[in-house]
TrEMBL record:
Every J domain range: 7-75
Protein name stated in the entry: J domain-containing protein
Keyword entries, A-Z: Chaperone
Upper lineage: Eukaryota, Viridiplantae, Streptophyta, Embryophyta, Tracheophyta
GO cellular component, one term: endoplasmic reticulum
Leader sequence segment: none
Statement: the UniProt record of this protein carries the keyword Cell membrane: no
SUPFAM superfamilies in the record: Chaperone J-domain, HSP40/DnaJ peptide-binding domain
Stretches that traverse the bilayer: none
Length: 332
């Protein structure tokens, strides 16, 4: 078939010097995985190309194994039967081809030496999906080159709100990809896919649609990659698995008592009251288990951290200053 054995081994994902039994086992596993009938229309072209290449590689390695066996049987114990005319495994002259043919017809190894390889799904597949030998070879060439070459990925952003990343959701994404037509030209095609956003996903998370990116002649279809980005939230800021809420407290409330309410991303209402304590600058209140879900640990969540910022008056009258000084005397 004109290709180096190393390429066939690479296609079947097997090492050199693999036994015939191991070659057959690898082949069976791969054809089950890449049979076109098991793939949706979106990945069927890739499956057909891979199936053809796997079939070509299997048959080539099988033929090599049989050729070795043929030469071994013909030479075993018959070295003295070579004719002076250059015949191989034959009695008379006439060259290599004639000698082999004559000998194969006469010996007990006839059936083995002259039989063709047993019928395989690969051969049956070629009848359906290939138009002659050139089609199979063309598919093999395309796939063998694509082992080390794949079209660059199509990359897009997947914008999510903090609520969507907290609760999870489904988002439909639409994008345009290049598609190779039957005559080899490239056209634009708009496609849509559904992304299931799981609770707790973070920005930078990637969703990959294999083979749904741009197509290029002679290459495997590229992947379409969507990277999660987080929209800025007006109330909360995400820090790892925690949520941070900044609350501004007037100085008088920080000293004399304060309470406020807010809603979590889930919609749950939370109330905090500080009646018997002074809220100091930089004070942080931690509410456990009210942060973002942690995907790696089912049911686990981060914390909610409420950071208080004390709002000081911009100016005071002389009377106010004197009053504060009198009130706060001896309190610090």
């Amino acid at each position: 078939m004109g290709n180096p054995p190393e390429l066939y081994h690479k296609i079947l994902n097997i090492p050199k010097n693999t036994s015939p039994q191991e070659i057959r086992a690898a082949y069976k596993n791969l054809v089950k995985k890449w049979h076109p009938d098991k793939h949706p229309p979106s990945s069927k072209p890739e499956a057909e190309a891979r199936f053809k290449a796997i079939s070509e590689a299997y048959e080539a390695l099988l033929d090599q194994q049989e050729n070795r066996a043929v030469f071994g049987l013909c030479n075993d114990g018959r070295a003295g039967e070579r004719g002076t005319g250059g015949a191989f495994c034959g009695g008379g002259g006439g060259g290599l081809g004639a000698g082999v043919g004559t000998r194969m017809e006469r010996t007990r190894s006839d059936d083995f030496c002259t039989r063709s390889a047993p019928g395989t799904p690969a051969r049956e597949f070629k009848k359906v999906y290939s138009s002659g030998n050139s089609g199979g070879r063309r598919a093999f060439a395309e796939f063998s080159s694509s082992i080390m070459r794949k079209a660059p990925p199509l990359e897009r952003k997947l914008e999510c709100t903090l609520e969507e990343l907290c609760r999870g959701c489904k988002k439909e994404v639409k994008f345009t990809r290049d598609v190779v037509t039957k005559n080899g030209s490239i056209v634009k095609k708009e496609v849509s896919q559904t992304v299931t956003v799981k609770p707790g996903w973070k920005k930078g998370k990637q969703v990959v649609f294999e083979g749904m990116g741009d197509e290029r002649p002679g290459c495997l279809p590229a992947d379409a990659i969507f990277t999660v980005s987080e929209k800025k939230h007006p109330t909360f800021k995400r820090v790892g698995n925690d949520l941070v809420l900044k609350a501004e407290v007037p100085l008088v409330s920080a000293l004399t008592g304060w309470s406020f309410s807010f809603r979590l991303l889930s919609g749950k209402k939370v109330s905090l009251a500080f009646q018997d304590e002074v809220i100091c600058p930089g004070y942080e209140k931690v509410i456990g288990g009210e942060g973002m879900p942690i995907p790696e640990h089912k049911g686990a969540r981060g914390d909610l951290r409420v950071k208080f910022e004390i709002v000081f008056p911009k100016e005071l009258t002389e009377e106010q200053r004197a009053g504060l000084a009198e009130i706060l005397k001896g309190s610090c």
